[in-house]
Amino acid sequence: MRVYSREDGYLYLKPGDYGFDKKVGHWVVRPPTKGCHAGGIPNHIVIEHEDGTITVSPSILLQEPDPNNPGIFISSWHGYLEKGIWREV
Fold this sequence. Notes:
Layout: E1 18-21, E2 26-29, E3 39-40, E4 45-48, E5 54-57, E6 60-65, E7 73-82, E8 85-88
Antiparallel strand pairs: 1-2, 2-3, 4-5, 6-7, 7-8
């Protein structure tokens, strides 16, 4: 679901949310998978639709590195956000 920055300027995302973060100047997404963190997508093309949903291209890959093991990821999500609908691949 698309969310907007609060009055304090911060963008708070729950799983499945996305929004434009005015403080950082780009879109931020949080895939719906439990435990997956939010991530910025400054290098993606984002199309805003009339209903407020967005489509992002190319695919989104978010990875959370393991701080104790370089090169290892605790979690990752790879997929698409098309007209506000998440699809994992």
